[in-house]
Amino acid sequence: MSENPTAATEFDDLLDANRAFASDFALGGFDGIAKAGVALVTCMDSRIDPLGMLGLSPGDAKIFRNPGGRVTAAALEALVLGVHLLNVQRILVVPHTRCAMTKHSEAELREVISEKSGTDASWQGFHVIADQEAALKADVMAVRSHPLIPDTVAVGGFLYDVDSGLLDRRI
Prior knowledge:
By secondary structure, the chain is of the alpha/beta class. It has helices at about 10-20, 75-85, 105-115, 130-145, and strands at about 40-45, 60-65, 90-95, 155-160, 165-170. Strand 4 and strand 5 form a beta hairpin.
C-alpha cells in the first residue's frame, strides 16, 4: 500500500493531542463493562456529548451513534451484546432537536450526495426521519420487543435539545 506523502501531516494535530491524552491515560486494563449499566443510542451530531449529558464518565456506558440516532439492525446487535455481555441494564434512545436527518427526504439527500460526490448515490439509504416522534416510538418498541433483550432491561425514549442541553423523556 502506498502512502500519500502530502497527506502525512493531515493528522498531526490529532496525533499530538492523542499523545497528550495518553500521557496520563487511566483506563488501561479496564474490562469494558458498562460500569453504570447504561447503553445509549444517539446521533452522530457533534453537538452531543453522550457521557456529559448524562453525568457519566468514560467506562460508564456503551454508546452507539449513527445519523439520526436510529435503532438500526447494527444498533440492536450492539444492544443485545451490551445486555448479555457488558452489564447494560438501562437503554436510552436519544435523537435530538434540529437534526439534519429530519430536514430532507431520502430523494433529496441522494440528489445532494450525488451532486457533491460526482457519483450516483441513488442506491444509498440514509434513513431519513419524516416524523421524529413516530420514529422514536418505533425505535423504542424495536428494542423493547427484541427477543434477546429481556423485560428486566429499562428502555426509554428521550429527545435531546441541542440548544439547552436538556433531555425530555418522550417514551
